[in-house]
Amino acid sequence: MASFRRPYPEPDRDTAPFWEAQNQQELRFQRCTQCQTVRYPVGPLCPQCRSFETEWITSSGRGTIYSYTVVRHQTHPAFPAPYTVLLVEMEEGPRIIAQLRAPEDAAVAIGMPVTIDWEEGELQTLPVFYPPPGG
Amino acid sequence: MTIRNKAAIAGIGQTEFSKDSGRSTLHMALEAVLAALDDAGLRPEDVDGVVKMAANNDIAEIDLLRSLNLPNLRYFSEIPHGGGAACGTIAGAVSAVVSGMADVVVTFRSLNERSERRFGQSSVGGGIGGSQAYHIPHGFVTPAQWVAIFGQRYLYEYGHTTKAFGLVSVLCRKHAATNPHAMMYERPVTMEEHQASRWITEPLRLLDCCLDTDGACAAIVVSAERAKTLPCAPAYIAAAAQGTGSRQQMMTSYQRENIARLEEAESTGKELYRTAELEPKDIDVAEIYDHFTPMVLMALEAYGFAAPGKAPDLFRAGRVELDGGLPLNTHGGHLGEGYLHGFGHIVEGVRQVRGTAANQATRARTVLVTSGTGVPTSGIILSKEPY
Does residue B309 sit within a domain? Predict the structure, then answer.
């Protein structure tokens, strides 16, 4: 049970820079250099203006909880319940999925500000989020 | 050019629904298909088309062809995106029949979802590609968890409590309790039991989640002209449509402006009503895909039966009861009858139009049947008469 390996992202030709940045503890998004639209998930084309021209920006790591679920019933051997999965709306706009790191009885609510941190895995470092100190 | 009432479902078939079928999905699919052909007064030799759900990846159309010794399939295709595909198979069959590319098209769903691979359990390991790469490595692995994110936001946007979800659960179990085919026959639940059931993934409790079921269903689509010559009263297909929404993903379209709405169901509904030349008020019975209770509320709103956030009022006012004007999930749905990935809803829709359902609505001239939401979806409107 404990030895079951966590699944990890499999980079492809579009997403490799995104996952490599996470291994350097950076959350990156693409930004269209034509219309400046930030896009997520990663893709080759700007859905707004359909330009292939893109650059990578680094997220501030700050966001607010847009929605969440407290997983009570364990469904996967690598993820012991309970744990809380957040959908965090980042300051740059995209909403990303990551786990909350907080005491089990800590308050969690939509609209709550959270800050990114990083947890190293065997093959991939992934983001987690903390509530503000003293909050 | 319209497809309105140019094709019909002429036969339906199903196996028993259980926790352990004791046989293969192909075995059950063949039972359901043969039953549906028999119901339609057709022989296997008449079949020249198969449209299947891609989710049934353990059964190929050639497995049916070989098993039934079909002479030739002129038309075969499959519809992607899990339970969103159920009515999509009917839409594909209608395309084939109306265009003349096939005469008799088989559609089906067969699964040992309880005794073999349970969708609520995951042991996926190794490298994850595609859009799931952003989710699975975070322990965000099951449909219940993916839907919980939508459900939580729905409660927040409209100020509801989880009792709003309980309304759906109680209604479906009430209808299942009087449907002898249902896994939850004679087993209704109360709101108190809903609220006391254990958390699966907040805000979803056990009673917000569909059943795990072994079973199979099938439906036979032919032209309206052909259907008139067959023994069963035709369930005319007044409309059939598929639909998507903005920034569409598989169960995780979280980049949309408002995730408390089901855009893919809204687009499907618009297309259905346009094709059928009907409005929501013209629908007599609604069989709405119920994998998880929040999605039923959001679907009722998307298909135009309630304003955003107001679907719970349909339950509180009794509108969705058998005699309430818009009877909902008359068979008990996935929450009460069994989880056949949307195909049980199609079969029940046909029974309602024929007037042969266990819980027969007094008025069932038009029935809306919808498929899985949170994914690219589909729907049909069945009609008693070819207006």
Answer: yes
B137, A69: Cβ pair inside 8 Å? no
Range of the domain at B377: 7-116+211-383
Please answer whether residues B7 and B32 qualify as being in contact, where contact means their C-beta atoms are separated by less than 8 angstroms. no
pLDDT, position B33: 98
- Report if residue B321 sits inside a domain: yes
CATH number at residue B89: 3.40.47.10
Judging contacts by C-beta atoms under 8 Å, the chain A residues touching residue B125 are 4-5, 7, 78
Q: pTM value? A: 0.97
Of B133, B148, B254, the CB nearest to A15: B133
- For chain A, say whether B118 makes contact (Cβ under 8 Å): no
Say if the Cβ atoms of B153 and A66 lie within 8 Å. yes
CA distance B190 to B186: 13
B50 interfacial to chain A (CB closer than 8 Å): no
Instruction: Tell which residue, B366, B247, B368, has the closest CA to residue B302.
Output: B368
Q: Which domains does chain A have, with CATH numbers?
A: 11-58 (no CATH), 60-135 (2.40.50.840)
Nearest to A85 among B122, B133, B139 (CB): B139
B337-366 residue pLDDT tens: 999 999 999 999 999 999 999 999 999 999
CB contact set of B341 (below 8 Å; sequence gap of 6+): B53, B55, B82, B83, B86, B109, B111, B113, B372
Structural domains of chain B, count: 1
Q: What is the ipTM of this complex?
A: 0.96
B152 vs A6 pLDDT, higher one: B152
- Say which of B131, B202, B252 has its CB closest to residue A70: B202
- Give the count of beta carbons closer than 10 Å to the beta carbon of residue B1: 6
